[in-house]
């Protein structure tokens, strides 16, 4: 082989040169393969790629061109012809591809709108609203410059963990219509993970107190269970559970603080666990830690409803107003109600010993939900959670329902315009989402400590700066905000 000959016949220099060359080619190829903007967190991108030369062409920034080209190609391939649109329907476009809807007219009560994911409609004269799915909302990819008649809708049912940009008022005021977990949003979906009243009150899995005691004595179950595989989230829940474990036995099945394997008959891995088996497992415990990944008013997930459904008492942490959603005043233990982890632990131990006190927390399971506000919310909601468990024909999921909400608002504004008076401008504010800065638990188990080294709170603060620049940029009518925000970041750092 030529390489062998080259290197073994004392042609050391040539051999060395070939290796250097090969190494450089390898470096270049691997650099090209990994070099992709999307892989970098936003701030890193700004540090490295503030490209001053772009200022010469402020109207056609590079990223924007690429994005539009990509959208065009996608549109051509996937969506085909767009001829059959009714010229009178207002167009509502999902700017972040979310519904995968190429284009379809939809009736909402007596109004009609044309919904599409296809960005080719961006400059269509009928385009009235852009919809955004919160997780995918990015300051670097927006339908700009914003026209006066462009209404923006935000759907975000997730915690801020996915996008801290939306925690800030500067971002939220860009939207006219919101659907989030907050009760203050225009189309609230706070109970998105609560399937139905019947489901919540069901006694399908509920165990009696003597059954629960038997699981502890015979099977060695702890009084409390914890299942979490998303470790160290913004709510800092694992720190609290770690403290609690010093005082109370906790069975932890997930990867976070794992100390217990799933036993027969529930052997399958957690992620793939059929609901039935999982419900059965929770129902054997007296308490289940129900801690959200972020602390936000009204952010409530299945972690809270699941134990209630199976007759287990949740130990809840997440929304500071969670008590508004208790089935009954005494049905849940709220971590915020205790001044220290020791206090909570002695309460748990006490309830674990006293059967009748424990069962008082479950009286509602037999007599029904008594919280009038919760009953009202469930009665009045016009949609059902998008979940196969409750899927029956005739149900509308909340995505469809929010689309119709925006469609109706768009028509209202169109009618006002036709009458010659412009509709009063309406935009969202901090209360439509607005989660506070993530904090930490202190050594006594009290939530509320600001920690300099908390990467979540740093992210929160960085996104505040992005939000401020974004607001300015949109107001200036620029067609792309990436560069503007990068400059703002840089300015900020120079101070
Ligand atoms: C019970 O709930 C109501 C509202 O549902 C509240 O006003 C009241 O303070 C609660 N009582 C107790 C003892 O927690
Ligand atoms: C909170 O604490 C008060 C007083 O200790 C108690 O009456 C109430 O039931 C507790 N509420 C919850 C949700 O634990
Ligand atoms: C909670 O349930 C108990 C037992 O059913 C009931 O006596 C009490 O009035 C309920 N609390 C509220 C606030 O409705
Ligand atoms: C929508 O929100 C924007 C930004 O806050 C505002 O300028 C505009 O007037 C609003 N439009 C309507 C129809 O409310």
UniProtKB/TrEMBL annotation:
Q: Which segments constitute the Fucosyltransferase N-terminal domain?
A: 90-189
- Provide one Gene Ontology cellular component: Golgi cisterna membrane
Q: Report the membrane topology from the UniProt record.
A: Single-pass type II membrane protein
Pfam families from the xrefs? Glyco_tran_10_N (PF17039), Glyco_transf_10 (PF00852)
- In what residue span(s) does the Fucosyltransferase C-terminal domain sit? 224-415
| Chief localisation class | membrane
Write out the transmembrane intervals.
12-33
Q: Does the keyword Transmembrane helix apply?
A: yes
Q: What compartments host this protein?
A: Endomembrane system; Golgi apparatus, Golgi stack membrane
| Tagged with keyword Glycosyltransferase | yes
Biochemical pathway: Protein modification; protein glycosylation
Q: Which GO terms describe its molecular function?
A: alpha-(1->3)-fucosyltransferase activity
Q: What is its EC number?
A: 2.4.1.-
For this UniProt record, give its keywords in alphabetical order, as a comma-separated list. Glycoprotein, Glycosyltransferase, Golgi apparatus, Membrane, Signal-anchor, Transferase, Transmembrane, Transmembrane helix
Question: Gene3D superfamilies of this UniProt entry?
Answer: Glycosyl transferase family 10, C-terminal domain
**Similarity comment text for this entry:** Belongs to the glycosyltransferase 10 family.
Name the chain's protein. Fucosyltransferase
Q: What is the lineage of its organism?
A: Eukaryota, Metazoa, Spiralia, Lophotrochozoa, Mollusca
């Amino acid at each position: 082989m030529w390489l062998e000959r080259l290197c073994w016949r004392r042609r050391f220099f040539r051999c060395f040169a070939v290796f250097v060359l090969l190494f450089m080619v390898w470096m270049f190829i691997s650099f090209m393969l990994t070099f992709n903007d999307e892989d970098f967190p936003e701030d890193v991108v700004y540090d490295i790629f503030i490209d001053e030369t772009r200022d010469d062409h402020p109207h056609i920034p590079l990223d924007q061109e690429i994005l539009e080209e990509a959208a065009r190609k996608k549109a051509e391939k996937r969506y085909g012809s767009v001829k059959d649109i009714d010229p009178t329907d207002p167009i509502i476009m999902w700017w972040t591809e979310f519904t995968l809807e190429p284009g379809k007219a939809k009736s909402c009560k007596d109004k009609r709108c044309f919904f599409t994911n296809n960005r080719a409609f961006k400059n269509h004269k009928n385009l009235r609203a852009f919809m955004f799915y919160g997780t995918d909302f990015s300051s670097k990819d927006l339908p700009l410059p914003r026209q006066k008649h462009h209404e923006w809708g935000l759907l975000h049912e997730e915690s801020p963990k996915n996008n801290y940009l939306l925690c800030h008022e500067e971002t939220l005021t860009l939207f006219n219509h919101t659907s989030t977990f907050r009760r203050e949003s225009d189309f609230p979906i706070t109970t998105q993970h609560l399937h139905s009243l019947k489901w919540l009150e069901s006694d399908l899995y509920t165990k009696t107190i003597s059954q629960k005691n038997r699981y502890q004595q015979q099977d060695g179950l702890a009084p409390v269970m914890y299942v979490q595989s998303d470790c160290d989230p913004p709510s800092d829940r694992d720190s609290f559970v770690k403290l609690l474990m010093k005082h109370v036995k906790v069975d932890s099945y997930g990867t976070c603080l794992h100390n217990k394997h799933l036993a027969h008959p529930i052997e399958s891995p957690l992620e793939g666990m059929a609901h039935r088996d999982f419900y059965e497992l929770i129902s054997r415990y007296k308490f289940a830690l129900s801690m959200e990944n972020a602390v936000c008013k009204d952010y409530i997930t299945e972690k809270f409803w699941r134990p209630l459904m199976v007759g287990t008492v949740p130990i809840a942490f997440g929304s500071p107003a969670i008590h508004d959603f208790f089935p009954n005043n005494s049905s849940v233990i709220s971590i915020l109600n205790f001044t220290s982890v020791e206090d909570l632990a002695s309460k748990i131990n006490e309830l674990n010993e006293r059967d009748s006190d424990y069962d008082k927390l479950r009286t509602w399971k037999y007599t029904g939900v008594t919280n009038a506000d919760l009953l009202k919310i469930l009665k009045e909601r016009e949609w059902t959670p998008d979940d196969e468990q409750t899927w029956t024909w005739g149900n509308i999921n909340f995505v469809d329902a929010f689309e119709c909400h925006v469609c109706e608002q768009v028509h209202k504004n169109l009618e006002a315009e036709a009458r010659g008076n412009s509709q009063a401008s309406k935009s969202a504010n901090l209360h439509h989402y607005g989660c506070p800065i993530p904090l930490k638990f202190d050594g006594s188990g009290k939530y509320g400590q600001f920690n300099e080294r908390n990467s979540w709170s740093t992210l929160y603060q960085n996104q505040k700066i992005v939000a401020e620049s974004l607001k300015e940029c949109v107001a200036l009518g620029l067609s792309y905000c990436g560069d503007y925000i990068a400059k703002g970041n840089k300015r900020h750092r120079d101070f």
